[in-house]
Amino acid sequence: xxxxGSSYGLWTLVVxxxxxxxxxxxSFFKPASARDWRxxxxxxxxxxxxxxxxxxxxxxxxxxxxxxxxxLPGVDxxxxxxxxxxxxxxxxxxxxxxxxFHILSYLFIGxxxxxxxxxxxxxxxxxxxxRLARTGVYARVRHPQYIAxxxxxxxxxxxxxxxxxxxxxxxxxxxxxxxxxxEEQESGRRFGQAWQEYAQHVPRxxxxxxxxxxx
Length: 215
Description:
Helices cover 67% and strands 0% of the residues. It has nine helices and no strands. The protein has helices at residues 11-29, 34-56, 59-63, 65-71, 85-89, 100-129, 144-159, 163-191, 193-201. The longest helix has 30 residues, at 100-129. The radius of gyration is 20 Å and the shape is elongated.
């Protein structure tokens, strides 16, 4: 939900957008364990930080105003479109919502939500039956839900980069990698040889061209 006005302080839009994206992600991820809630909470913190600057208070614009004013003289930095910093800095002259970074961001965000939606039914059914999730998207990567969160956050960085979210992003990526490692240790203890066979054939984060076909 974009707004092209020239002012900030639109806290109703902050709350509305945070609620929409967090509830949308929640409907696909459905956290159950303490680990799930930690990963979902970190994603929520990222979304809150993003929309607070997008519609509430443009901290990044104020912090970089001197440098941006020298690099982009004549640009109204408090115009809402100026928040699309990548489009601005790379000289995209048209509507930033139609710019290449913005369009690319939709692909990452949409792909991330699709991956969340595709992963949840497989994981839910496996948990219900007390077995290892290894079909569907889990036949290509071992941690599709964490990958989905990273894709969504990266897409938002392309669309509306801020200093806070740029600092948060690598921290959250490392956090998700550590959560994935901990999950694998638990799965190894619980499923034994079945897990070892699965982990040998299916990559952790970057899919191979061919999906693993169970024997």
